[in-house]
Design a protein that fits this description.
Layout: E1 13-18, E2 21-26, E3 34-39, H1 47-57, H2 59-63, E4 67-73, H3 77-84, E5 100-102, H4 107-111, E6 115-116, E7 121-122, E8 124-129, E9 135-141, H5 149-165, H6 184-191, H7 208-211
């Protein structure tokens, strides 16, 4: 069955390495939380450790959003553990907080449509799954290019905002910036100001009004 946004994500259960211990992990166990599930090609490679370490370093930011981050490849849990136990100066992951899931048969990668049958490894697929376990975002990178952790975090924040407030997030939205109602009047109101940003005179420092340069009307 093809993947579809707003529909349930494929369920899975597998062994993961969590804090250097083997643990059974299932998607179902994270119901009620947001989940970022990202596939990476292979242990002991080159772009992959930069991604895993970057996500691990920002794990607390995702946890504040009640969001779990899971990394998965078609390596075994034993390979994952060996990579974690390898120092970073030797190409290993070292002390990493991120759970590493094992998909030795490639079934999970196939279910998420990121498995490369020619090479036997997954592409860099990333999936954002909401509290109801529905797919909200799907991206797939070719192997040479890693993911942007800040952008993934922004997307989780954006989807959670829309879940809670019912408004929608425009281009380049970041937490605290303007949103709009998904109506004809909503977009009209948003587009009245440059880049959808309203200037609030009350937030200007005292005296700024006097120093503003008045442009000639042309």
């Amino acid at each position: 069955m093809p993947l579809q946004l707003q529909k349930p994500a494929p369920q899975f259960s597998t062994v993961a390495v969590v804090n250097k211990e083997f643990k059974e992990v299932s998607l179902k166990s994270y119901e009620g939380q947001y989940v970022v599930l990202f596939f990476y090609p292979l242990d002991f490679t080159f772009v992959c450790p930069t991604e895993l370490i970057a996500f691990s370093d920002r794990l607390a930011d995702f946890e504040k959003l009640n969001c779990v981050v899971l990394a998965i490849s078609c390596d075994s849990q034993f390979s994952h553990l060996a990579w974690i136990n390898t120092p970073r100066e030797e190409g290993g992951l070292g002390d990493i907080k991120l759970p590493l899931l094992a998909d030795k048969t490639g079934k999970i990668a196939r279910d998420f449509n990121v498995y490369n049958e020619e090479t036997g490894i997954p592409f860099r697929g990333l999936f954002i799954i909401d509290k109801a376990q529905n797919l909200r975002q799907i991206t797939v990178n070719d192997l040479p290019v890693g993911r942007d952790v800040d952008e993934v975090l922004r997307l989780v924040q954006a989807f959670q905002f829309t879940d809670t407030h019912g408004e929608v997030c425009p281009a380049n939205w970041k937490p605290g910036s303007k949103t709009l109602a998904p109506t004809a009047n909503g977009i009209k109101s948003y587009l009245k100001t440059p880049n959808g940003v309203e200037e609030n005179k009350r937030t200007r420092p005292e005296g700024v009004e006097k120093n503003l340069i008045k442009k000639p009307k042309v």
